[in-house]
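PROTOCOL LOG
Step 1. Enter all chains and additional molecules of the complex.
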Amino acid sequence: MAKQPNKKQEPETTGHEWDGIQEFNNPLPRWWLWVFYATIIWGIWYTIAYPAWPGIKDATSGYMGWSTRANVAESIAEAEAANAEINQRLVSAELAQIPEKPELASYASSAGDAVFKTWCAQCHGSGAAGAKGYPNLLDNAWLWGGTMEEIHYTISHGIRNEDDPDARYSQMPAFGEILSDQEIEQVVNYVMTLSPSYDPQDASMAEAGEGVYLDNCAACHMEDGTGDQFQGAPNLTDAIWLYGGDYETVKHTVVNSRFGVMPPWTDRLSEAEIRAVTAYVHQLGGGQ
Amino acid sequence: MAQSQPETPESLYAAREPVFPKRVSGSFRNLKWVIMIVTLGIYYVTPWIRWDRGPNLPDQAVLVDLANRRFFFFWIEIWPHEFYFIAGLLVMAGLGLFLFTSALGRVWCGYACPQTVWTDLFILVERWIEGDRNARLRLHRQKKLDFRKARLRLTKWTTWLLISVATGGAWVFYFTDAPTLLVDLFTLDAHPAAYTTIAILTGTTFLFGGFAREQICIYACPWPRIQAAMMDEDTLTVGYREWRGEPRKHSEEVKAGAEQGDCIDCMACVNVCPVGIDIRDGQQLECITCALCIDACDDIMAKIGKPRGLIDYMALTDEERERAGHPPKPIIKHILRPRTILYTSLWALVGVGLLFALFIRSDIDMTVAPVRNPTFVTMADGTIRNTYEVRLRNKHGEERPFRMTVKGDPAVRVTLEGTPYETVTVPPDSTYNQRVYLQAPPGSDAANRERTDVRLWIEDISSGERAYKDTVFNGRAN
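Step 2. Run joint prediction.
Step 3. Record the structure below.
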């Protein structure tokens, strides 16, 4: 099918020659060239229209006023506007009722998940399992109470901080300055007998420690050691130790005392966000 | 010449030679009419077939519900996680194409390909309006645009456009409830995606069927290239019995006094060809094996009193045998070969596998993802608890109560987040996320062992259907 090339016509060359090899003059197709010029013009327009040319401090902003920051702000505003209605319902709902309402609960726990991962995970861990000194939020042991209202109060005002006059507050004394070394050893042994799975170092010491306990500790931790959520006194009879349940750690706690702090969140989160993260924490498995 | 002169390269671009296929009748043409009616019928009618699935499910027999991620095919419902059914069907389609190609060459191209079917339909319209080949040629060559030419062209293009709109329009009915969409389309209430899809498909149908035609097959479609690798010397394809036809009438040999073959060089085979080739040049890339030249030639052979089949379905091996004076192999022997039998077996194997998978799949299902952050939680009384994110799937058209149980260790108990019961109600035809807790009491083996294998069961209380997933319980590693 292919026709024989026309051999008669002398082809045009560029005039370049290297060792007898000549270069054809094969110019780009005209339309291609025009597209090339058009891209140059378009490129110049682009640098005028959009932020492009670097200056000393910042770059030209472009006459179209386009910026990624403005776009993000717009997207956030859009998302907030889209959630405004359900956030309003979340804020006006009875706290204890939120987990009972499927739509609200589902929204609150996913929104709360995002809040938690942003603001809470640094101390409590991304899986909410806590760490030494930072409570595990998955279990059913609560220092200050695990109902929706109690969790909401704790998140709103925080614990032992000076920023919020309504913060939860309690202080365990450092018994190293109050009790003798022997009394401390006795009471540590006694406390360890209260917890279900830990054996005391010395049974006779533990027996002697009961009196020390009743005199010094029972006021907050209660006579039976079950603690008092009203003043944030931990339950000593459960299997959970915030700082560790071995002899040395418990002794350190008794001698030096412990107090964790948590900031208030009312100034950083909206009420809807606080309620969302409350619902999220409540549904992690330990909510009451 | 000692030094080679540079040569002007010939232009690589060739303008399209318009093709004006002549009307033809015969057995292959009739077969193609039947296939056209059946395939177009299936395409246009399918979305309108109704199928009762109960109150909560669509009643369209074939529906690709993208919004809800469901595919309905009569009594079968496919969920996204069952995409392997689609993959399997694609594998079957591939193997089927291998089978047909190795046995019958480009039979798909010639008979069933939408490009062929719609082009055929467009040519039919063209013939109705502008007349047969000679009339169309005259009209094409007529430079002056008089009233008659304008009227014929406008009528033709309008009819093509109507067919194109109907083609694009039918496509969108597969993706949503057809009767509702039809009304919405006319009241301008349909989704913009529907209008865009119709517009694009109308454009491509109009362009491909009316103007691009054989150029799609020759330049755009990869299939002609791929198929060459699947054909062999036993593949039946459309060919010319050169040893019987040559030397043809008007040839140099005949003019020089040689005895004329059966071919009278009437050009009937060329005139009917929709891709504009001469089959007597041998098998070529452009040929879609539509077999219309066979009908055309058979007609001529009957008229001049020669046996049919100067142009015919034949294989390369037939050529050797016939040149040697033997009869061709029977068609069945061309088709039944180890290769085609292998393709058929593989095709059937995948098909049986899919059918098996279809029948054993359950209408309730779940996936279990153990939460690993943390692996376990110690509760106040020393109980060890593991958490699992469970997705429950209910494929029934009504809501079902699922009861969750655990087997594997008698000490391990199951509880569900948000409910004191072990039963959760899953809404119709949907997936439900439920957090599930497994708890081992303090001191139990499971609580103290790093790993215990357990099996989670769900049971649809109303029907007794069950499904399970194996997972792991992590205790306190001592």
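Step 4. Note key features.
Chain A touches chain B at residues 2-3, 5-7, 9, 11, 13, 20, 22, 24, 99, 105, 125-127, 129, 136, 138-141, 196-197, 235, 238-240, 283, 285 (CB under 8 Å).
The radius of gyration of chain A is 36 Å.
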